[in-house]
Amino acid sequence: MVRSEYLEVLREKMIMTAKDLGMSHPLVLKYSKEIDKEHNKLLDSLKKDFPPEKQFYPNKSQIV
Length: 64
What we know:
By secondary structure, this protein is an all-alpha fold. It is built from 2 helices and no strands. It has helices at 3-21, 26-49. It is elongated. It comes from Aliibacillus thermotolerans. InterPro entries: HLH_DNA-bd_sf, Spo0E-like, Spo0E-like_sf. This is Spo0E family sporulation regulatory protein-aspartic acid phosphatase.
């Protein structure tokens, strides 16, 4: 499964769990933390594809 697909599966599980058990249930928090970890992994993998000189947003020295 592609990382972004796994992220979407986790998101759906979190939403359904929150609807069934409430937003403050520990399982919802578990899914939320797992989503954060997977999202960070996805961002890290994208950084490899877009090194700093090719990033979409300018750094502070490039802002006029």
